Amino acid sequence: MTAPVIEALGVRKRFGDHDVLRGVDLAVAAHEVVVLIGASGSGKSTLLRTMNLIERVDDGQILLSGTDITDPRVDADAVRARIGVVFQHFNLFPHLTVLDNVTLAARRVHRVSKAEAARRGRELLTALGLGDKAGSYPDRLSGGQQQRVAIVRAILTDPELLLLDEITSALDPQLVGEVLDLVRELKGRGTTILMATHEMSFAREVADRVVFLKDGVLVEQGPPEQIFGAPQHPATAEFLARVG
Ligand code: ADP
Ligand code: MG
Predict the structure, then answer these.
(1) Whole-angstrom Cα distance, residue 70 to residue 72?
(2) Across the 244 residues of the chain, what is the mean pLDDT of every consecutive 10-residue run?
(3) Is the pTM of this model over 0.90?
(4) Within a domain: residue 168?
(5) Is residue 152 included in any domain, yes or no?
């Protein structure tokens, strides 16, 4: 058995007197697509942020391919270089072209040469339907295109894990589909993905496993057919009835 790509073990996080994560255990295997669902404030973003070491856990461990990344001696930048992340608000640099946005981290963090980064960037943009945007500035792109560029940037250096946090929440409804299509495409390529989303139909269709968080507790997880079709826990059923 190879180690999970990412594994949270008894992860706890508290802000002030608010227990936001109350002992979460969650593992994602290589090539798996795991979707986190749960009400706003249930701790989805915080869990993703602990995995990227943006937030430090108060207790528990997070293993990245078997290595404890919550060990204080671990180089956080080196860990972050192994994980691709896309958030709700695409943070492309407005003064850089799409190609430069996509290749910046590869060049700065991964020390890939400018020519090699540009070659990979163009290749990936083309493969993912954005080839004609390489020379454009972000303000010439739709929100959906910007978010797709942010995803390309996140995967350019083949991260072990891709964390996606509500990547369609800030988009106009008609732009959501093209971003989710790209996630589908990445799943087809075998990318290991842990994503938080409000898009239940997408979760149902694309997730290998759905994880329901409530008040910082992992209440239930299972294949989408179980979670959406026959939830084992009343809180899951109640949440799904509410979000429709
Ligand atoms: P979700 O992504 O499921 O909506 P979050 O992880 O963003 O949930 O937030 C969970 C809870 O933690 C919320 O009550 C939020 O207000 C709180 N929280 C998140 N980050 C911080 C922070 N940096 N400081 C204080 N409270 C925070
Ligand atoms: Mg969130």
Answers:
(1) 6
(2) 92 97 98 98 98 96 97 95 90 95 91 94 95 97 95 95 95 91 95 97 96 98 97 97 88
(3) yes
(4) no
(5) yes
* Rounded distance between C-alpha atoms, residue 28 and residue 150, angstroms: 22
By the 8 A CB rule, do 40 and 90 touch?
no
**How close is the Cα of 41 to the center of ligand 1, in Å?**
6
How buried is residue 244: exposed, middle or buried, by Cβ count under 10 Å (0-12/13-18/19+)?
exposed
Q: Is residue 7 part of a domain?
A: no
Q: To test the ligand 1 pocket, which listed residue (46, 85, 87, 217) has its Cβ within 8 A of the most ligand atoms?
A: 46
C-alpha of residue 117 to centroid of ligand 2, in Å: 31
Give residue 154's domain range: 92-158
Question: Ligand 2 centre from 131 Cα, in Å?
Answer: 31
Ligand 1 pocket residue status of 93, Cβ below 6 Å: no
